[in-house]
Structures are given as C-alpha cells and as structure tokens.
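Suppose a colleague, Dr. K., hands you the sequence of a protein chain of 223 amino acids and asks what its three-dimensional shape might be. Before reaching for any lab equipment, you can write down a predicted structure in token form. Begin with the sequence itself:
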Amino acid sequence: MQYSFGSLKGLERSSNKDGIAVFAADDSFYDIFAVFDGVSSLKNSKHAVNMSIGVLRSFYNKNKKNSNVNIKYLMEMMNNKILSSKYSDAATTCSLLAIPKVAYYPVIVASLGDSRVYGVHSQYVEQLTIDHSTPGGTNNLTHYLGMTNFLYQDINYIEFMKGFSSYLLCTDGFYSFFEHNKSTIHSAFLKTNSNKLSAILKDKIRGKNEDDASFIYVRVENV
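The predicted structure, expressed as tokens, is then:
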C-alpha cells in the first residue's frame, strides 16, 4: 500500500483549518486514513480538528490489531471530546477510510459533513460518501463532529469488500477543483508515482482553491 497527502490554505482563508491523519503500521489489522475540515465560521474549529485527530491516534494505538474496529464508536468519541472540551464554537467535518490487511475483511468508509471519500478505478471515480449539507449550499452543514444531538444513524457509513485499486479522501476545497478537472486528476492518479503525486496535485490546484484544500490518495494496488 502506498499513499500521498497534502494540504493547501484557501485563498480566502487567514489560516488552514483542515486536518489530515494517516495511521498505517506494519503490525496493524486496519490502516486508517482521515481528513477533517474545521467549520470556517467558528473560531475554535481548528481545535476541533486537533482534538479529533488526538482521539483517533489513541483509538488506533489501542485497536490497531483488532479485526472488529468500531468506527461508529470512534466517531462518537471524537464528537464527545469536542463537546466536553473548554472550547465553544468548535466543529469539524470528518471523512474516514479503514482498509484491512486481510482480503476477506471489509473496507470501511464513514463520514459526517461534506468532506468526501472516492473509490478510484482504472476507468472511473465513484463518490462513496454523501454530503451532509443543505441543497444549494455546501457551507450549510447538517451533520458534523461537535453536534450536541449526535446519533449513530447520522453517520454516513458503509462496508464493502475491496473493489477499488485506490481511494481519495478530500475536503471541499480540493473536490471543488477535482469535480471540474476529473479527467486530468484521474490521469495523474493512475500514471504518477506515489512519491511525486502530492507535489503534482498541489501544483495543479495551487492558486485555484478559495477554501482550504486537503487530500489523501491511497493506492492499494497498481492499476
């Protein structure tokens, strides 16, 4: 497994409120990847991102050899951490991908908010998550980490057997560009060495992202 990641501050933002988490260990049962997008209108959203990553790190270290990883409970823990902290006005989206080392265990995708996970095939790209936002306005989130009325059923959650050669996790600043340049970016995914992909993607999007743009590209197998 290979992966590339990167993050660019949005042109209209004073600071980058996105977050990226990669937890991949040789002795793990699942490798976990996640992107976070702190709600820009809330002053403490970067704290929500950092707290969520901290919870994820602790969870991974305790459960990395566990074949039955409870991702919904993990998201509840992240939500509770934000709510119980000293920071008010703190919230973030979260999209998470868990990939097993064993072929007969499922890939897990979970999300709250409008960050996304895509499955990448040699011929196409498929969006695997559903945006939690009101129609016509991606900034109007209906679900996120930091909700006072958090419910398991609010989590966009799917399990499936490996069906994609690669996966893309990204925040809205990245996919706003990606959705209008799918052919070019898809070609870069397939043809670019993982060591060079991050720099190439940053060059393509730099200066074109009004919002913070973060991505993780995970290549499970060569295509």
